[in-house]
Amino acid sequence: MAELSPSRRIRRTPFSEGVEAAGVKAYTVYNRMLLPTIFEGTEADYHHLKSAVQVWDVACERQVELRGPEAGRLMQMLTPRDLSGVVPGQCVYVPITDETGGMLNDPLAVKLAEDRWSISVADSDLLLWVKGLSNGFRLDVLIDESDVNLLAVQGPKANTLMARVFGDAVADLKFFRFGHFEFEGREMVVSRSGYSKQGGFEIYVEGTELAMPLWRALFEAGADLDVRAGCPNLIERIEGGLLSYGNDMTDDNTPYECGLEALCKPEFAIGCIGRDALLRVAQTGPVQQIRPLEITGGKVPLCDRAWRLLAGEKRVGQVTSAVWSPDYEVNVAIGMVRMTHWEPGTKLQVETPEGRFDVLVREKFWAR
Amino acid sequence: MAELSPSRRIRRTPFSEGVEAAGVKAYTVYNRMLLPTIFEGTEADYHHLKSAVQVWDVACERQVELRGPEAGRLMQMLTPRDLSGVVPGQCVYVPITDETGGMLNDPLAVKLAEDRWSISVADSDLLLWVKGLSNGFRLDVLIDESDVNLLAVQGPKANTLMARVFGDAVADLKFFRFGHFEFEGREMVVSRSGYSKQGGFEIYVEGTELAMPLWRALFEAGADLDVRAGCPNLIERIEGGLLSYGNDMTDDNTPYECGLEALCKPEFAIGCIGRDALLRVAQTGPVQQIRPLEITGGKVPLCDRAWRLLAGEKRVGQVTSAVWSPDYEVNVAIGMVRMTHWEPGTKLQVETPEGRFDVLVREKFWAR
Fold it and tell me: What distance in Å separates the CA atoms of residue A107 and residue A243, rounded to the nearest whole number?
């Protein structure tokens, strides 16, 4: 692998100092910000995440905030998910679509109040889309990237560690709910969420002042829990079926293709920008859809581009994420498969830079 | 430096194969695409760029195309530059601003026809901004990221090399003009432009089919010219005063702060989104502005964040790009300086992670 050249354009985070001290070996760039990808090694980080607890610098999940009398209206314009029943205090995963129903982002959004939403954006400049729409439609909403930096605490021992720093009540938080908890005299929003299936929390750290103190407090409180710096893990996220915007789907794909049909209610999503196109897709369902794929025949190479998925010599889809899983002793993968070949049990092949491998379409992801 | 983790989300380019074979050592990520930053070394690459000719994979300059009856109107909405006199066949550098006059991008745009523009975007999702506006204002324009990949040929021997591949006529192209030239029976748009002061061209390669054949043809034709794979060079671009969006300016800054006042005519830019705010700024001029800065006292460290610029203990600006220049034997730098301290000859200090260095505000960049 080549190195990543630092520059101001690739933004550091308020936790970068801690990440560097912990010996980060590799990064990716996410929303033009540093996102660690490897500390000890992808497999070592994976085993640790599944057995202990990790602190993740996920400040790259930038927060786009909508405030004002038309914030709710604008929010509903962004997504085919019906938001009419969402109450303040709730987190929702919202596919965001353009006018043709193509996915522009797949963030977690928090309804802070009737007139206030905060969106944790995946890797695209959602801010520009939202501001462009708001300008064009002349909506009465303030739109900002707020100075909030997320720190995630993930792993089976996350409850224990968080309770030591924020008090026992934090362990009572239900999935996808948030609460306010105190750290060094300041209130912080903490949600039970995160980009792993090991359980855990995301802490919304306002500004930079308390960022490193919080980082250090978590490490001090968790020394006996073997707490380490970590990051979203490629193996663990594929096993758990956590999709990655830009990898597993792009603006070429509708939410239906991404298996998010349960979240799409274009018939109720009044004002949703992609509504017309998505109502059309909903009539018949998508032609291709994301599937968990098992790849056999040895470890696959690093998946840095879409690999063609073949039935004989016919292209029937593509693999977009793939990696060897030590726990399942198989390559776990995510791909987009055409409906003619998406039934569980279908046998296909995938073309990688290191040759062809056998593929089995699975019904479910490995970990749920 | 840490490594960059490859994934599909960080897009490869049709020239990546050539870049890898040439031994690329480091990348940055630009518009979620790989942009090489180092081949032999920043200084070695710099000396070579200034003396020979390089081929650059700048496919990351994604092309946003506007087509349709209202393409010209939308284009003018994006920028305070007066586009009324621009003729088909002309390239223009266009600061693009949001509703408060903050810079969202600073691309080169090409007017292909009365109803067709192509924008070579700097590192932000301009596509989302443009599509959001077009949706909101219900404009009659098609907006796409087109499958066009730029290859730049830069350096004092660029004319010679390009004439060998595209014919002598290409050497007659005037600065910021483009023409159509043939390669392997296909027409390609070639412009005299590029992100260096050494002179050269940018070739708009449609699709992927001819990408590597063109790459190889340039290397075969230029063997005796010592042609090498290269990339925008940090030292050379600072010496020449080439600004970098995301580094030297962000959406916090107006075009006036970026020294682009000569390009701003908000009074004539009818429909420009940032017009009101920019008319206000134009009344008095900006409070801070980009300046070339000379930093002395030894080589500065790598500039990966904004460094505070100080007059005594008072913050009077920031340095956003800085590097040692072998040719000028000084650290060349770009910074944003408040008007109280921006006069050429002003002595300041800059706070870097390796301590303070002396700074001199210069009148002009080193190379023009």
Answer: 11
pLDDT in tens, B169-221: 999 999 988 999 999 999 999 999 999 999 999 999 999 999 999 999 999 99
Please indicate, yes or no, whether residues B43 and B170 belong to a single structural domain of this protein: yes
Q: Calculate how close chain A gets to B106, using CA atoms only, in Å.
A: 14
Q: pLDDT tens digit string along A161-220?
A: 999 999 999 999 999 889 999 999 999 999 999 999 999 999 999 999 999 999 999 999
Number of domains chain A is built from = 3
pLDDT at B368: 67
Q: What is the dihedral of CA A203, A204, A210, A211, to 10 degrees?
A: 70
Domain that holds residue A361: 287-368
ipTM tops the 0.90 cut = yes
Task: Name which of A27, A134, A321 is nearest B2 (Cβ-Cβ).
Answer: A27
Contacts of A134 in chain B (CB under 8 A): 132, 136
Q: What is the enclosing helix (H) or strand (E) of B281? A: helix B275-284
Helix, coil or strand: residue A193: coil
Residues of chain A with C-beta less than 8 angstroms from the C-beta of B302 = 6
| Chain B closest-CA separation from residue A200 CA (Å) | 25
Looking at the partner chain, which of A7, A128, A137 has a beta carbon nearest the beta carbon of B104?
A: A128
Q: What are phi and psi of A88, to 5 degrees?
A: -55, 135
Task: Give the CATH number of the domain where residue B363 resides.
Answer: 2.40.30.110
Kindly state whether residue B36 falls inside one of the protein's structural domains: yes
Query: Looking at the domain assignment, is residue B334 inside a domain?
Result: yes
Could you tell me if B43 and B178 lie in one domain?
Answer: yes
